[in-house]
Amino acid sequence: MSLHPASTQPYIRTVYVVSDGTGITAETFAHSVLAQFEGLRFKHIRLPFIDSVDKAADVAARIDQTFEADGKRPIVFSTLVNSEINTRVRQANGMFLELFSTFVEPIEAELGFKSSHSIGRSHNVANTEQYQNRIEAINFSLAHDDGQYAKGIENADVILVGVSRCGKTPTSLYLAMQYGIKAANVPLIPDDFERDSLPSNILPYKSKLFGLTIQPERLSEVRHERRPDSRYASLEQCRYEVSEAEKLMRREGIRWLSTTTKSIEEISTTVLQKIGLEGRFY
Amino acid sequence: MSLHPASTQPYIRTVYVVSDGTGITAETFAHSVLAQFEGLRFKHIRLPFIDSVDKAADVAARIDQTFEADGKRPIVFSTLVNSEINTRVRQANGMFLELFSTFVEPIEAELGFKSSHSIGRSHNVANTEQYQNRIEAINFSLAHDDGQYAKGIENADVILVGVSRCGKTPTSLYLAMQYGIKAANVPLIPDDFERDSLPSNILPYKSKLFGLTIQPERLSEVRHERRPDSRYASLEQCRYEVSEAEKLMRREGIRWLSTTTKSIEEISTTVLQKIGLEGRFY
């Protein structure tokens, strides 16, 4: 079940991410840091839920085995906050980068407060209000995906509009999952262009609308993957729809951005900035 | 549009996250670090896409204004890799924590390679194969949510099963979005318990099944939010369904975990560990 076949290029070093929680934050961070070493391949191993000295001993043994096998000490990104557990792991032959303590200590000095050094605090805890908001937003975004289920759309924080396959659905789900934002999405379809009007059910919420657009050439590629050689995927149809959608959005004064070369994260960040929700969530 | 009303508790310090990319990784990381200061409230401001010296000057001005207003220097988590931009921002009166360079320099020394110091490399770039896999997985998980659209389910990497509202949908979407895993989900419903058998369409894929379960009391709460005072939400019904689902999973030899007190991230991490997909993605 190798989903993303490993590159044939040999890896330069094994990288462990060791955490008392899920290690997801640390893993994402490690990827960001190592992405600065362009062209080098690393072998990543995440070891989550390391919350006892026994588990720490297993981790240390594993790091030592890798050192033997690779002939080079592994790089270990660690977010262990318990000092006994951390000390045990550090007995292994690795290069240790302590993500939390590196920054917690100077912040303690700056604030004049001691940190709580408590385990597994890095993630939203289930059943908190903030966590419930995220789950609620995911359910909302799913229920209001692709123009379905118009009831309740007035509760949306943002309503994404644009032609079919321009990136509305993944963006809506990301906004919900990452930020607890209730993001509906409604397609602009040829019917709307013929009537020369936005879908009637979203007309009352114009201030919540945000448009996504895309280069017709890229749209045609994306649509061909889904429905090869269809009229729907033809470059001519894509050009028509994108041009009409942009005309409509321009006339209605809807802000929009092009998704052509942007990742979900970049689209979402830009949407948040433009609709002024950025930074309201803490 | 204040979605999560601010606490009445005053914040102890303003925290900026300054990035040449989206800043999402840095923001998540900053939250993790500051979560170690239990009980203290911070005001978070993310400033993404700071990719020119002009923008850096604006950021510096903003940090200085905050210093004036708060009477305390802001904490600035920064992932600026361009040294000219970074130097300009650092002219402001803040406490600077440089997330990347703190670790990149020791890794350079360890590897004997220089990093590329290139901007905006921390995220998956749109249109790479890995990014396309994520988008494809999101579409797959949506199409195979809640037992719908059985066609193609043989391409799933994992099929989550469990009673209605036990957490299958958010977990499937998270696995797809974060890891590019094609996660289908299929509910176990009273019909299945009466027939005393798994749904027939997933029987051929038993090795891909992973069960989620939940305490009946918690399930009843969750269901009451969706359908207040329904039979569906009654504690009696929840007890019946959970007990039958666990019996079925036990008999069929399906691995499972309880979601009751777990976040999506914790559930997903555990699923990945148990099905052995952990660490296969790099």
UniProtKB/TrEMBL annotation, chains A, B:
Superkingdom to which the source organism belongs: Bacteria
Entry annotated with the keyword Transport: no
Catalytic activity: [pyruvate, water dikinase] + ADP = [pyruvate, water dikinase]-phosphate + AMP + H(+); [pyruvate, water dikinase]-phosphate + phosphate + H(+) = [pyruvate, water dikinase] + diphosphate
Enzyme nomenclature, EC number: 2.7.11.33, 2.7.4.28
GO terms assigned for molecular function: ADP binding; ATP binding; phosphotransferase activity, phosphate group as acceptor; protein serine/threonine kinase activity
Record key words, sorted: Kinase, Nucleotide-binding, Serine/threonine-protein kinase, Transferase
Enzyme class: transferase
InterPro entries the UniProt entry points to: Kinase-pyrophosphorylase (IPR005177), PSRP (IPR026530)
Positions of ADP binding: G162, V163, S164, R165, C166, G167, K168, T169
Entries under HAMAP family matching the protein: PSRP
NCBIfam families: PRK05339.1 (NF003742)
Family under the similarity heading: Belongs to the pyruvate, phosphate/water dikinase regulatory protein family. PSRP subfamily.
Physiological role: Bifunctional serine/threonine kinase and phosphorylase involved in the regulation of the phosphoenolpyruvate synthase (PEPS) by catalyzing its phosphorylation/dephosphorylation.
This protein's name: Putative phosphoenolpyruvate synthase regulatory protein
Organism listed in the record: Pigmentiphaga litoralis
